[in-house]
Amino acid sequence: MTRLGHFRFAGHTAVVTGAASGIGEQLAYQLGELGSHLVLVDRDEARLKTVADRVRASHPGLTVDSIVADLADRAQVEGVATKVLADHPAIGLLVNNAGIALGGRFDQVTVEEFETVMNVNFRAPMLLTHALLPALTAAPGSHLVNVSSLFGLIAPAGQSAYAASKFALRGLSQALHTELAENGVGVTTVHPGGIRTRIAEGAIVGTHVPTSEIEPNRKLFDALLTYPPEKAARQIIEAVAKRKPRLLIALSAKAPDLLARLFPVGHARVMQFLTTTSVKIGARR
Amino acid sequence: MNYVEVHGSRIRYHATGPADGPAVVLLHGIGRSLEDWLPQHDRLTEHRVISLDMPGFGLSQRLPARTTLTCLAEGVWATLDALGVTDPVHLMGNSLGGAVAMQMLVDDPARVTTLTLVNSAGFGKEVTFALRMLAIPFLGRPLLGRIDPRVAKRVERSLFADRALVTQERIAMAVRIGRQPDFAAVYLEIARALGGFRGIAPRWRAELLNRVVRNPRPTLILWGDRDLILPSVHLSAARAALPHAQSHLFPDTGHMPQLERPDEFARLVKPLLALTAEPPRTHSPL
């Protein structure tokens, strides 16, 4: 994808969702260092303010806006888009990073819980990208990042809603990669695995998950989420600079461990599938 | 422009603004002159602004000693002494001038209020091939020996993202500087003192930065994202080395933002210049 040329961060406006913690927070700091003006979106007002203030203090020459919104709510997503378009008729970078998790097997979660995950992880990026397309295509050379997941590549038991949302986001993102190339807009789909973020803390627990299973599951996630978010953010920024269509983060290191825990019996077969996939991806580069 | 005598050498300087109040001292890069700072004299009008041709550069005579970072730092302090500037100053340095500013801070911390480093040397080994070639024996002097208008134009072009800034006036000044009797000697002395063909040497950088961190001052680090001399990736290293600093990366800007983005530059540095010489008690950024 060298056709587009390297993405240049300085002087452009970057919109980052889920910017109050984890990968989004680190992206905010690193984009600020690279001279990008920022629009930071999150539902956690206090943390978002801390992040925005920190960027402002380090980089007095930048414009840093913050928008508090719950992306599960369609009207609030549309509100974010309206606000961004009003203040920034042209944006250089949109990072759909916000995501939530849901614990429990399909029969242990309610339809409402399932839909909330779909709304935050898939509908919000879809709505936001659709609404912000005019700003993204206003100047050639812009870039779109969709943060999918390891579970956008494989779908383990107990992750039906999360995997469905992340598969959907991957599908949208890959189709857009081809479509938007015509507009001179690059698209990167990111598949992180096991990043140390607050996603497990904020996870919804399925209504019908037995109480005895909640704590062990949380502990399992805590043990798996070890990869530093600042390193993940660094990799995303490099991938954007180079216009990489797909970025896998921490998969090689984490996947075997993760799979062994999730599929005590059948993980060998899944590993084989993953290896085949990654070889295919590698061959395509 | 005026001249002042320092250790028996004639040093060229330019001073503007009110004679009282804390001075702002502007330091140019290798082989350059105070002309690199002229637009800031017009903009930072509330302060006493002093730019100078560092000893052996521009139209200043060299000092007897071999040109090193310490020697340049001492030369600038001595020039300020000669100008009667004894109160703490705000230091701003571009490229080599940034390293000189840091050296001045660690040599005499009590005399420095704030530090502004502009595409500064000191934060990485990567440097333009043109400078690395100077380290090759028998090659450096011939290369510097003939700064004709054609060569000068090429050098000026490498400094700016916008070619409109490569004016006949700048080219003529570069040719004039290149004809100074000690131009090549001083250029090579400092280039070889700080690095070699493999780039800027790591040892003096590590030692200098360690000492700068022990004397934290309100610091602003500025860079142009299209710098061909010292790449803007050095900005990350600079932020890691000086975590108390603020920073800004200018879009579509080359090695000298003070010339290429003069208004934004002035706007960014003004809050820093408003700070007074209170020894900082905390490490919080400003």
CATH fold field value of the domain at 2-125 and 201-272 in chain B: Rossmann fold
What is the strand content of chain A?
Answer: 5-15%
The CATH class of chain A, by name, is: Alpha Beta
Please tell me the overall pLDDT of chain A.
89
Q: Classify the oligomer.
A: heterodimer
How many structural domains are formed by the residues of chain A? 1
By DSSP (H or I, 4+ residues per run), the number of helices of chain B equals 12
InterPro entries (chain A): KR_dom, NAD(P)-bd_dom_sf, Sc_DH/Rdtase_CS, SDR_fam
GO molecular function, one term (chain A): oxidoreductase activity
Domain Ketoreductase (chain A): 12-198
GO cellular component, one term (chain A): membrane
Summarize the structure.
Chain A: Belongs to the short-chain dehydrogenases/reductases (SDR) family. Chain A has 285 residues and is of the alpha/beta class.
Description:
The complex is a heterodimer of chains A (285) and B (286). Chain A contains nine helices and nine strands. Chain A is α/β, with parallel strands linked by helices. Chain A has one domain: Rossmann fold, CATH 3.40.50.720. In chain A, the strands form two sheets. In chain A, strands 3-2-1-4-6-7-9 form a seven-stranded parallel sheet, with helices on both faces. In chain A, helix 3 packs parallel to helix 4 (111-136) and helix 8 (251-262) runs antiparallel to helix 9. Chain A is globular and about 50 Å long. With 286 residues, chain B is of the alpha/beta class. Chain B has a domain at 2-125 and 201-272: Alpha/Beta hydrolase fold, catalytic domain (Rossmann fold). In chain B, 40% of the residues lie in helices and 18% in strands. Chain B has twelve helices and ten strands. Chain B has an eight-stranded mixed sheet, with helices on both faces. A two-stranded antiparallel sheet of chain B has the order 7-8. In chain B, strand 5 (89-94), helix 3 (96-107) and strand 6 (112-118) form a beta-alpha-beta unit. Chain B starts with a strand and ends in a 13-residue tail after the last helix. Residues 282-286 of chain B have low confidence and may be disordered. Classes of the chains: A alpha/beta (285), B alpha/beta (286). At the A-B interface, loops of A face helix 10, strand 10 and helix 12 of B. Chain A: One of its GO terms (molecular function) is oxidoreductase activity. Chain A: It comes from Paractinoplanes atraurantiacus. Chain A: This is Short-chain dehydrogenase.
